């Protein structure tokens, strides 16, 4: 059994095309029905303002599977500690033996989450998309854009965040990466000329509304990953010409479909893995509006963990 620390993992695994292909293959396997993926195990410790999620999946015929334990303690920044942490355990699928523990402190979750956004944009946004509206200014606001640049020639960002100083600091970081960045006073202003909108917040009330969507835009919503979070107003989903979830069940429990859970939706719900596996063409014209809700799946964790272990073993 091997134990790998974050520094070694971060050196071996970056936001690159090989990592993107590994996560995309995991989505496709899920879409073909070739993955076993149980529901998320979640536990909140309300008196401490902390939580833990456990995710796993097995991809048929894959020699390894992973179990990811992800923790969140949202008062940690006041303590000088990161708010997110965790590790991934990698097992041999046939024997059940532990092959490795990847003590990544949440790094691989960050990577696979960013790559999932890029995969959604690859299949759902206009190919000539260059301008991105980013709602939020945290780690994923930065990483989502880095991953997007693997699949689209992004050159301009428009950003809005609840704290103006956070948005300005984000803008400086992204300008250093060679992008033109505009900071806005409202979500609506940030979205006016967007080809792609990415929402990356822990919001508990909708931030994005139907009137904020320009013609032909693609929206990736990745902040809502628990029952008490919400970024999109219901009318955003209804207005979309194509609504896509990583999995419908997770979106109904943790994501943007919560308001429609157990009900017949006034729109068709597609799943990202199936769209990839079947080559579904959900963007019919340049005017098509697409929305993808990403809640984070166990198959992503198994895919990125197996990819990381291969790179670490080879090194």
Automatic annotation (TrEMBL):
**What are the annotated GO cellular component locations?**
cytoplasm
Q: Which domain of life is it from?
A: Bacteria
- Name the chain's protein: Ornithine cyclodeaminase
Organism of derivation: Billgrantia gudaonensis
């Amino acid at each position: 059994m091997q134990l790998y620390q974050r520094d070694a993992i971060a050196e071996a695994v970056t936001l690159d095309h090989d990592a993107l292909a590994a996560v995309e293959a995991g989505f496709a396997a899920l879409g073909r029905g070739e993955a076993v993926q149980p529901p998320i195990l979640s536990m909140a410790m309300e008196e401490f303002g902390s939580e833990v999620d456990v995710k796993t999946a097995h991809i048929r015929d894959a020699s390894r599977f992973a179990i990811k334990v992800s923790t969140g303690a949202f008062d940690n920044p006041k303590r000088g500690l990161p708010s997110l942490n965790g590790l991934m355990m990698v097992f041999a699928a046939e024997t059940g033996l532990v092959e490795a523990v990847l003590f990544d402190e949440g790094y691989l979750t960050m990577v696979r989450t960013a790559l999932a956004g890029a995969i959604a944009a690859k299949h759902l946004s206009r190919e000539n998309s260059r301008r991105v509206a980013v709602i939020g200014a945290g780690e994923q606001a930065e990483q989502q854009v880095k991953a997007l640049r693997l699949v689209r020639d992004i050159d301009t960002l428009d950003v809005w965040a609840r704290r103006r100083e956070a948005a300005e600091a984000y803008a400086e970081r992204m300008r250093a990466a060679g992008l033109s960045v505009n900071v806005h006073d409202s979500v609506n202003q940030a979205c006016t000329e967007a080809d792609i909108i990415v929402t990356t917040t822990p919001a508990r009330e909708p931030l994005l509304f139907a009137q904020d969507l320009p013609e032909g835009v693609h929206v990736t919503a990745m902040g809502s990953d628990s029952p008490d979070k919400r970024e999109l107003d219901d009318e955003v989903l209804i207005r979309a010409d194509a609504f896509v979830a990583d999995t419908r069940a997770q979106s109904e429990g943790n994501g943007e479909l919560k308001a429609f859970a157990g009900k017949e939706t006034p729109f068709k719900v597609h799943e990202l893995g199936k769209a990839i596996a079947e080559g579904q063409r959900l963007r019919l014209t340049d005017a098509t509006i697409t929305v993808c809700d990403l809640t984070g799946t166990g198959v992503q964790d198994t895919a990125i963990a197996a990819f990381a272990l291969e790179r670490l073993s080879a090194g």
